Amino acid sequence: MCYNLNSLPCFVEKGSLPQPKLNKIMTCFSKNKAVWLGVVFVFLSGSVSAVFGQASRPVSQPIPLSTPLVKKTGSSMPITAPPVASASTRRTAFPVLADVDIPGYSGILVQDTNGNIVMDSNSNYAFNPASNVKVATAFAVIKTFGPDYRFPTSVWTDGSFDQASGTLHGNLYVSGRDPVFNYEHAAALASELNRMGVRNVNGDLIVTGDFVMNYSSSTERAGASLAQTMDGAKRSVVANRAWQNYLVNSGKVNTTNAFPSVSFAGSVYVQSIPTNAKLLFSHESTPIREILKTTLCYSNNYLAEKLGDMLGGAYAVARVVQMNAQIAPGEFMLQSSSGLGVNRVTPRAMMSLLQSLRKELARSKMTFADIMPVAGIDRGTLERRFDTDFSRGSVTGKTGTLPSTDGGVSSLAGEIQTRSGKLLFVIFNQHGNVNRFRSFQNSLVSLIQGQLGGAAPIAYSEVSLDRRLAKTRITYPDTRRN
Questions:
Q1: Residue among 148, 466, 152 nearest 283 (CA)
Q2: Where are the domains of the chain?
Q3: Distance CA 135, CA 219 (A)
């Protein structure tokens, strides 16, 4: 059964009451005019407080489908709770699932890979998906860049090199927007410059405005950290440890300088690359599929927002999903690329996204496990869920948690492996206790697996995220050197 605005009660239209009854109502209003005006004043005062107060109250209930535009939502939106989940409001292939007690305001959709419904409860209502939004961002990134794309961080100079003294006379420029550029990668730049014979720069270090390092939101701080890390005498203990770990995880312990260093005589500035600068080499990040795996395993908000910004922000992410997964705009409304804040997605729209993502990954011979955490195996948000001997490795998916927004939100979506085959699932829980929601999700997934012969692990070998992020390389304008 579907639920929509047409099935909800509406206000009585003008002219629908007989005149005697209207006269009686107006007489009652006249006698109690002061009371009614007081009520109106209180109502308006509350509205003004909501607008001018320090923070508006979070939306506490799911909303039905509405505007076709992807736009910022807020507490002033009209809200309507879905029908209470019960046996009469669900579609399911298994009678036992019809009697499950579903907490809070919830939307659930479970299908096999061919789209046949296993369970459907309020799947046409919009809920807050929390960090399940990151799945949308991952899909949009893969559609735009491809899974093997690498973010380049390029090194330039406008000076000349004195090989005898190992000095670069001029400025060194660094450009790039690699969102996972960290201490070890800064040391890698110094290592490559040392390999070219450069140990000193008697000019300035200049970074472009889009350069980021160590998840910093300040380009100035990122540039200062780059200069400090490239200089072995100033490099911090944390940075040295990151570099040594990188050498181990990349397998370059015996082939790369263990203590690279490049010092700068000048200062650090932020500006664009001049036209007379010459490209020396580029440091290329690990493939984007590994960045997505890290982002989704740890539900990293910074990385998700940075990746979304590269596409044009949350609106652009939503548009890529809507067009490629054939989702109506009103069913997929985002205000962030990470899932923070008030976003609205229906379970059936999320299911369409999962189906589309699965097909997109298959084109590159990939599965959900290549970019999402595998429960009970991968480090991160699913590390301690579905981790028993019989369920470990049988669930691959993305969590979502917002303890306060919308009265408490928890979500889980992805793929379930059973002895009878794969299922795709979406569970959106809202307006309740997050821990209770998680327990419900664990129980429901296990119950569904039990109806299909039990849990079955996927063929998956864990690769640490440190090793995944160490798959970087150095490229030159004319040749490629790894």
A1: 152
A2: 87-147+290-463, 152-285
A3: 28
Pairing of strands 473-475, 480-481: antiparallel
Q: Show the CA angle centred on residue 324, arms to residues 323 and 329, nearest 5°.
A: 35
**Residue of higher predicted confidence among 139 and 99:** 139
- How far lies 95's CA from each of 118, 187, 442, in Å? 11, 60, 19
Query: Quick one: average pLDDT of 139-155?
Result: 98
pLDDT attached to residue 32? 46
H-type helices in 109-261, by residue range?
133-145, 183-196, 219-230, 237-250
pLDDT digits (tens, 9 = 90+) for 269-287: 999 999 999 999 999 999 9
Place of tokens 């990954």: 361
**Alpha carbon distance 137, 307 (integer Å):** 7
- In this structure, CATH architecture of domain 87-147+290-463: 3-Layer(aba) Sandwich (3.40)
CA dist 470 and 249 (Å) reads 6
**For the domain with range 152-285, which CATH number is right: 3.40.50.720, 3.50.80.20, 1.10.760.10, 3.20.20.30?**
3.50.80.20
Q: What percent of the chain has pLDDT over 70?
A: 81
Mean pLDDT estimate for the chain: 86
CB-based contacts of 74: which residues, under 8 Å, 6+ apart? 56, 59, 342
